[in-house]
Specification:
By secondary structure, the protein is mainly α. It has helices at 17-20, 35-53, 64-82, 84-102, 106-127, 130-134, 137-159, 163-168, 170-200, 205-220, 250-271, 280-300, 313-343, 354-374, 381-401, 406-429, 449-474, 479-498, and strands at 433-434, 446-447.
């Protein structure tokens, strides 16, 4: 015998119509309605049912500012390359599109904009001098393809501004939004690097490209909720946003991460292939161009940049700590070879091999403290104590390197560390030390360990600032460097205060 829920309704007399059918409003359909009333009822009921079943939410595009930051400078660069013919063609086409749109011909305005962009691109191919500028047919073809892709992305961005397109073709606007966020980082970083190299030359061009790749990765690759999907599904999973509500999927996010980590390195190899192994500085360039974006990728994972890898927060934290430590050590060593001893060697007042040890302690200790602060590892009194001790050691090593008196550099940190150890011992016995200035006072003062640590670091930073002021009078050439170092010491004290 079939169970009751699978039996036809004729054999289930105990189930009423009110429980088996959805409740209808007072305007429900009746068989005695006229044909006109029937049509009105269907036209009125159909959009409601569609909107309830659809996940599309017609609204304006919410990321116009981000797209404008990337595409507006690219469009200006294209107009500069194309010259007067491109500007004239685009102006006439946009004028015609505006007239057609003012006549309420919605599809005419949309088609007019795309035809204007197409005509401007054809004019660009005939008026620009890409092939003669590069003296290479493959490079000219790649540059022409990049310009055409930029024009196409501008057209996609313009299409998202039409409301009727959102209402009539909701799947198209969702696809255009995903297309923009997936392709704009590649195009914009290439265009910005191209413009910068045209202005300042090929020296350090790979680092310019690296900078723009990091900027546009941060703008577009961090997970964003789509502008055209309903937010009702956010209520599920305890308020966690589902993956299909994001603009980019796992595949697009993976490609953007690969572009960030490998494209600057490949660009450097392609443009400097004859000298990439000619010296230690050249090898350091290769390592820096890989590990700097890799470290930036790990920092972006604190904002959801690696959501496509795993959702386990503990696993992500272990990935950040282990890989970040390795990348940080390599970056510090390469910076010492490539920048510090090469450009600032005359400011180092300590003879070798002690100078290598002190500079490494300063850079690596400062980087470790900054990384711990960024990853949120300084969250307790004990971790604050270790961070304060690390700040004092890094400051003393840096002070000795640039010529700070050794006795002062050692005496103040040692005194502070002894005070720190005694305070830690007392803190383990008494979590909070209270000093009430006045028992009748309404607000008694509370002195905690963090406050005492901040006072110690502030006193040391103030002494460093006084010494920098003294050196600025007698040693003017070291003034800027010393003030920068002292500012970093003050920043350490500020970070401890916030911890």
């Amino acid at each position: 015998m079939m169970p009751p829920e699978l039996q036809p309704r004729l054999f289930r007399p105990h189930i009423t119509a009110s429980t088996s059918e959805p409740t209808q409003s007072s305007s429900s359909y009746s068989p005695h309605m006229s044909p006109a009333s029937t049509r009105n009822f269907i036209d009125r009921a159909t959009p409601t049912s569609r909107s309830n079943n659809s996940r599309f939410s017609p609204s304006s595009f919410a990321y116009n500012g981000r797209i404008a930051i990337a595409l507006v400078p690219c469009a200006a660069f294209l107009l500069d390359l194309g010259g007067t013919p491109v500007v004239a063609t685009l102006t006439i086409g946009l004028l015609i599109s505006y007239i057609v749109d003012s006549l309420n011909v919605k599809f005419g305005g949309f088609l007019g904009i795309w035809m204007s962009l197409l005509a401007a691109q054809i004019s660009f191919f005939f008026s620009s001098s890409l092939f003669s500028s590069f003296n290479s047919v493959p490079l000219g073809l790649l540059a022409a393809f990049l310009c055409a892709q930029t024009t196409f992305l501008i057209g996609c961005w313009t299409s998202l501004q039409f409301k009727w397109l959102q209402l009539e073709n909701p799947s198209i606007v969702v696809a255009l939004e995903r297309l923009l966020f997936a392709c704009v980082p590649f195009t914009a970083s290439s265009f910005f690097a191209w413009a910068t190299i045209s202005a300042v030359g090929m020296n350090n061009s790979s680092y310019y490209f690296l900078l723009f790749a990091c900027v546009f990765y941060w703008i577009f690759a961090i997970p964003r909720v789509s502008s055209f999907k309903t937010k009702q599904e956010v209520k599920y999973h305890g308020g966690e946003i589902p993956d299909d509500s994001f603009i980019l999927g796992q595949l697009e996010s993976c490609f953007l991460s690969l572009n960030l980590m490998f494209m600057p390195l490949l660009f450097h190899v392609a443009s400097h292939y004859s000298v990439i192994f000619s010296s230690a500085a050249s090898v350091c360039d290769l390592l820096l161009l890989f590990f700097i974006p890799f470290l930036f990728q790990l920092y972006a994972s604190t904002r959801g940049g690696l959501w496509w890898v795993t959702k386990d927060s503990h696993q992500l934290q272990s990935i950040r700590i282990v890989n970040g430590a390795i990348a940080m050590v390599i970056i510090v060593i390469c910076l010492e070879i490539r920048v510090v001893f090469r450009s600032f060697g005359k400011y180092i007042q300590v003879p070798p091999p002690l100078n290598y040890l002190l500079v490494t302690t300063t850079l690596l200790g400062g980087a470790a403290g900054a990384g711990a602060s960024v990853l949120g590892m300084i969250s307790s009194a004990l971790s604050s104590a270790f961070f304060t001790a690390l700040s004092v050691i890094v400051s003393s090593a840096g002070a000795i390197v640039v010529g700070f008196p050794v006795l002062v550099s050692i005496f103040l940190p040692v005194a502070q560390l002894l005070l720190l150890l005694s305070l830690i011992t007392s803190y383990l016995r008494f979590p909070v030390v209270k000093f009430c200035c006045n028992k009748t006072s309404r607000y008694p003062s509370i002195v905690t360990m963090e406050f005492i640590f901040c006072v110690c670091v502030a006193v040391y930073s103030a002494s460093c600032s006084c010494w920098a002021l003294f050196c600025s009078v007698f040693y003017k050439e070291k003034c800027a460097l010393l003030l920068c170092i002292c500012s970093s010491w003050k920043l350490n004290g500020y970070m401890v205060c916030n911890a």
